């Protein structure tokens, strides 16, 4: 197997599924964020992706509303009788204050995320990676490249402030984003898209690690 296949296979199921869901949101023209709830053994028990900008059918009652964040959709797929204190909420990006409050209110045991939210960074939040023991920061870069592409693809006219500021705050990730062809990806699944981008992602992850001392 090549290096991408090795790292993909070694990643926790939650990491893989969050990235798959974020990519689904990206190719659908939405905000690229994916989220899952996992049980004590790490198996995914519910999931959701950002649907705040969805116009099509399906997607649940929150679809097309400001509440339809990935984490809210993952929590909305949980059942009232579940003991959420035994579960972990994963997301590709650091949850916003609404989703953090929802996780606390429902009693979720642990909240983990792959990358700081570029929008939050732009608006003054430091953020940090919620994935402990993952070594290189390749999943952080991968998650935020998708996020930035979803933001830039949806923009009309001037470049969005989030992308402009991330060129200053997260230059390695922004450089990978800027190397992509314009518009939305044509690959239907995240794996071939990421595999093609993997050398650039790994290079950016290494450079970012040196910059932040990780």
Please tell me about this protein's structure.
This protein has 214 residues and is α+β, with helices and mostly antiparallel strands. It is built from nine helices and four strands. The chain has a four-stranded mixed beta sheet. Strand 1 and strand 2 form a beta hairpin. The two termini are 27 Å apart. The mean pLDDT is 91.
Write the layout of secondary structure elements.
Elements (H helix, E strand, L loop, with lengths): L2 H8 L2 H15 L6 E5 L5 E6 L20 H7 L11 E6 L3 H10 L3 E6 L2 H5 L15 H17 L6 H9 L1 H8 L11 H23 L2
Parallel strand pairs: 3-4
Antiparallel strand pairs: 1-2, 1-3
Helix pairs in contact: 1-9, 2-6, 6-8, 6-9, 7-8, 8-9
Which tags fit this structure?
single chain; 214 residues; alpha+beta; 4-stranded mixed β-sheet; 9 helices; 4 strands; 11% strand; globular
* SS content category: alpha+beta
Quaternary status of these chains? single chain
- Beta-strand content bin: 5-15%
Shape: globular
Give the terminus-to-terminus CA distance.
27 Å
Helix content: 40-55%
SSE pattern: HHEEHEHEHHHHH
Mean pLDDT: 91
Low-confidence stretches: none
Supply the number of helical segments: 9
Neighbour order of strands in the largest sheet = 2-1-3-4
Counting DSSP E segments of at least 2 residues, the number of strands comes to 4
């Amino acid at each position: 197997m090549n290096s991408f296949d090795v790292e993909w296979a070694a990643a926790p199921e939650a990491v893989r599924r969050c990235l798959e869901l974020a990519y689904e949101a990206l190719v659908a023209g939405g905000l690229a964020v994916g989220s899952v709830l996992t049980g004590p053994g790490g198996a995914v028990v519910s999931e959701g992706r950002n649907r705040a900008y969805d116009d099509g059918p399906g997607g649940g009652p929150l679809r097309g509303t400001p509440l339809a964040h990935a984490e809210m959709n993952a929590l909305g797929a949980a059942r009232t009788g579940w003991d959420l204190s035994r579960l972990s909420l994963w997301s590709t990006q650091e949850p916003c204050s609404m989703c953090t409050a929802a996780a606390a209110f429902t009693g979720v045991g642990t909240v983990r995320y792959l990358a700081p939210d570029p929008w939050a960074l732009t608006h003054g939040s430091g953020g940090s990676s919620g994935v402990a023991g993952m070594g290189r920061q390749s999943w952080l870069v991968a998650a935020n490249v998708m996020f930035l592409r979803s933001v830039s693809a949806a923009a009309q006219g001037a470049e969005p402030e989030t992308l402009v500021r991330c060129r200053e705050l997260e230059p390695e990730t922004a450089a990978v984003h800027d190397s992509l062809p314009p518009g939305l990806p044509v690959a239907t699944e995240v794996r071939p898209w990421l595999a093609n981008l993997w050398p650039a992602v790994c290079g950016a992850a290494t450079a970012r690690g040196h910059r932040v001392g990780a």
